[in-house]
Amino acid sequence: MGKNIHDIQNEIIEEFALFDNWQDKYEFLIEMARELPPMDEKLKTDDNLVRGCQSRVWFSAFSEGDLLFFSADSDALITKGLVALMVRVLSGHKPDEIAGADLFFIDKIGLHEHLSPTRSNGLVSMIKQMKLYGVAFHQKQLGG
Amino acid sequence: MENNNLDIQKIRNDFPVLLQKVNGIPLAYFDNAASSQKPRQVINAIYKYYSEENSNVHRGVHSLSARATEKFEGAREKVRAFLNARNTHEIIFTRGTTDSINLVASSFGKKFIGPNDEVVISAMEHHSNIVPWQMICAEKGAKLRIIPINDNGEIIFDEYEKLLNGKTRIVSVTHISNTLGTINPVKKIIESAHKKNIPVLIDGAQAVPHFPIDIQALDADFYVFSAHKMYGPTGIGVLFGKEKLLNEMPPYQGGGDMIKTVAFEKTTYNDLPHKFEAGTPPIAGVIGLGAAIDFLNETGLENIAARENYLMHYATERLLQIDGLKIFGNAKEKASVISFLLDGIHPYDVGVILDQMGIAVRTGHHCTQPLMERFNIPGTVRPSLAFFNTIEEIDRLEKAVLKAKKLLGK
Q1: How many CB atoms lie within 10 A of CB A109?
Q2: pTM score
Q3: Out of A53, A66, A116, A132, which one is annotated catalytic?
Q4: Selection from B150, B118, B94, B157 nearest residue B286 by Cα
Q5: Which among B357, B367, B372, B391 is annotated as catalytic?
Q6: Which of B23, B228, B348, B407 is the most buried (most CB within 10 A)?
Q7: Beta carbons of B41 and B16 less than 8 angstroms apart
Q8: Per-residue pLDDT tens for B376-406?
Q9: Is B367 known to be catalytic?
């Protein structure tokens, strides 16, 4: 059994606590972006594009067994780093857990400004959509 | 000529907003093209209005209303003089550049644009000078024609003239491009259009803070701008229109103030300028605009232009030293903005890093998506200068861009 959403977030908070300046924090984020497994080019369609004004985010969802997985990418590196964190936290769990997840880690690692609507970088929309997928897949599971 | 006749430190002290820190670092504000900062003179004028002079204008017998009206119409005369327009009644107050263009597109369009007619705009226009024309063209069955630009971001003049024909009803182009910084040859553009009796609207949003405008010399039929980009408050802008055209155009919005008499059977409309100013106007905004004009006149627009020219050259030179940095917009005549990209790096990432270092720039498509398509780029990093920026701030910008390149490059 893998870690649950809550534990993964705490893990991330611990990792970020090691940084005492913005440079190290962003370097780490950029590293996460570079380590994110590349998204299949075939999946980077307009349908999978989450629109932001500033940067583009693609993501797609698929289920395996009773777990929900996400694959995502962005054309901006910092956005991609945040996307990587989201995938790390939310991917590979039960749909209802994803739907109801409280994403407290963003604030705790001091990156909540990237979720502000003015940043318009596609992240907020992506998180919303991930949760919606959680709801939809959960309904599907209940439906039998 | 670094400072010309300006005491920059004294001027900076007049802008309270510049005193703050961002992420613990003094703010270097390079987002002037998005919105300008406001000097104390403008803030105080608005404060004074609300503290001592507030009253509705035009319809009042009492002294307070008379004073407010005098100040309000006094500001209109200031705008007239600022633009060197012939008549005060040719100055219409609107909510801003976008509102002004919508007014012309709708009202001029209603009367003068018909099926198969043509409207000419350029490939470098801001969405506010594209969408209103798309809307009226769709409504009337007219066609939007686009003046092509070269790789330097300049209008291809012969191609422009080829577009002017018997079906062209209006030309609408920007004075200075908010993304490329190109200063368009608007006098020539207007002359060519006038040879074929075609009126021209000039979008002056980016121009008015940078150099003096002479409407009569340009012979523009419509000229529009926003106060908030020229050291004034938000929510107020100007439409200058030649009275002959404005008189022929139907009203845009209906309501109080724009009428002479109202009866359920028939209503008659007011004369210029009030015909196009329905409802209580943004009085405090107008007074702020008047104070902004006073500020610009006292500082001297020629002084401002000279200093900004100097800063632009310095900044361009510094940025071009950076390996892998490309500037978009290399017109022979430029002002206001420098749009650039670092090779292989997304502009959003650069903007985030610059913000961490206290430097405010804008990133993205700058409301000119067709222009981004033309150059096949996702957006740019756009520092935009004002006369109160300093060499020290530009040096900080250069260092920050180098740092961003180091962090984000492969």
Answers
A1: 19
A2: 0.93
A3: A53
A4: B94
A5: B367
A6: B348
A7: no
A8: 999 999 999 999 999 999 999 999 999 999 9
A9: yes
